[in-house]
Amino acid sequence: MNILEKRLKNDKFEQMYQEAQLISNEYMNYFFNDKITLESLATQLRSIDTFLDMRIWIVNPDGTIISDTSHSKNARNVNINELNPNFLENITSEYTFFRAYFDEPMISFTQPVTYNYKVRGYIVLHTPLTFLEKEANRYLDMINICFLIFLPILFIVFLYIHAVTGIPMQRLMKAAMEYSSGNYNYTLNLKGLSEYQNLGAAISYMASEISKLEDYQKKFVANISHDFRSPLTSIKGYAEAIKDGTIPHDMQDKYLNIILFETERLNKLTSSLLELNSFESHGTFLDIVSFDINHIIKKTAESFEGACRNKKITLNLVFSSKKTYVDADMGKIQQVLYNLIDNAIKFSHTNSRIKVSTEEKGEKVFVSVKDYGAGIPKESLKKIWDRFYKTDPSRGKDKRGTGLGLSITKEIIQAHNENINVISTEGVGSEFIFSLTKSGK
Q1: Same-domain pairing of 61 and 35
Q2: pLDDT of 256-294, one tens digit each?
Q3: In terms of DSSP H, where are the helices of 24-128?
Q4: 3-class DSSP state for residue 68?
Q5: Strand-pair partners of 431
Q6: Would you give the distance in Å from CA 227 to the centre of its chain?
Q7: Residue 200 falls within a domain, yes or no?
Q8: Is the dihedral of CA 210, 214, 215, 219 positive or negative?
Q9: C-alpha–C-alpha distance, residues 337 and 332, integer Å
Q10: 185: closest CA among 216, 210, 222?
Q11: What is the mean pLDDT of the chain?
Q12: What are the helix (H) ranges across 24-161?
């Protein structure tokens, strides 16, 4: 209110200044040159008073008021210096109240009138202070009306913003708290802006993946416990039997060999786990060289001569050319071949055969290991690459596999930026095919 009143006063003083300049230029020169009479001047000034609601005094140099446009409490022939000796020295007065001549306080503007470098008189304009207060209140009323219109609109806008941002954010926070506490079944439904819907979908997906990871970890621990418990139970049982003399001395070598065998199983399982962990954590360092894949297949097949003889399995090696060079890590590829042939022998029937072949197609060499054994059930095809997964519910027919061979195999092939696939029919057999880059040698 104070700022508004100050602004209105300044505007009013500016208007008074312009009117005083106009009166001085248009009328006072004629009056001082006796071209118009005082009565004519007074008539013109009353018109201005009526139009602008400004009381106008014409004052002689000695301070005597010679014209007053007000009929009420007219101050004509009154000397201002007797009312206020300093009044004419001030151009503006923000509070003028001569009780004998004003009904209310005024603001005043004094304009000296000069002619031939001499002050010939003064023009004094007055306007009521209440006029400014009324103007200020009128503006404030307009502002208040605008606020009354604007605030409900603002409230509606706030409710809308809260609905499209605040509520979804609260639901997202609630979902995050639920998921962080382990409640992965909490359903998150979001409506509104697509950005929040996308964020909600991402959080829900993250929660489902974490849930799967938690299930995987539980299965992982359970599988490890199972695979470690069996050999450890055997080792402990036979060791205690040897110690307390239950096993005769002449039979101890047999059971010590069993203990060594089970120890080797544990060592193999531990090594496989460490190798898989290395693949996932840091990738694997590959020593890429050019070598003859046919020669590596022959060498790997020779290591299974005893196993094939025991099960009367024929191992057929079929190569598209005498020598086939590839660019790969020879040791890792030999491990892949060992795992695949070992699996093929494990799930082949007695008196059956296994075919290992190579075929060149463009810049790739495809290696196939095919058996005619038990095959893989259709529902298990996508799971065979998972750690510890075994198609046999009894956890492998020989019960000695770690369930990690195919996982390691896939990691090695993917580390080479190559692919491995399986084709299998239950009761007919399985074929594993992987690709390698053909050497430019």
Answers
A1: yes
A2: 887 887 787 677 667 766 665 665 545 556 788 999 999
A3: 29-32, 38-52, 80-83
A4: strand
A5: 370, 423
A6: 43
A7: yes
A8: positive
A9: 9
A10: 210
A11: 84
A12: 29-32, 38-52, 80-83, 129-161
Domain boundary among 248, 281, 314: 281
pLDDT digits (tens, 9 = 90+) for 176-233: 888 888 787 888 877 767 787 788 888 888 888 777 776 666 666 665 665 677 678 7
In a shared domain, residues 206 and 289: no
Angle between helices 330-346 and 405-415 (to 10 degrees): 150
Q: What residues make up the domain containing 264? A: 194-281
Count CA atoms within 13 Å of residue 101 on its CB side: 20
Contacts of 71-80 spanning 24+ positions with Cβ under 8 A: 72/103, 73/100, 73/101, 73/102, 73/103, 74/101, 75/101, 80/124
Domains: count for the chain? 3
Which two tokens mark 366? 């495809």
User: What are the DSSP calls for 268-325, one per residue?
Assistant: HHHHHHHHHHHHHHH-----EEEEEHHHHHHHHHHTTHHHHHHHT-EEEEEESSS--E
d(CA 386, CA 403): 8
Q: Structure pTM? A: 0.46
321 and 262 within one domain: no
Asked if residue 233 and residue 110 are part of one domain, the reply reads no
**Which of 397, 277, 399 has its CA nearest to residue 349?**
397
pLDDT of residue 352: 92
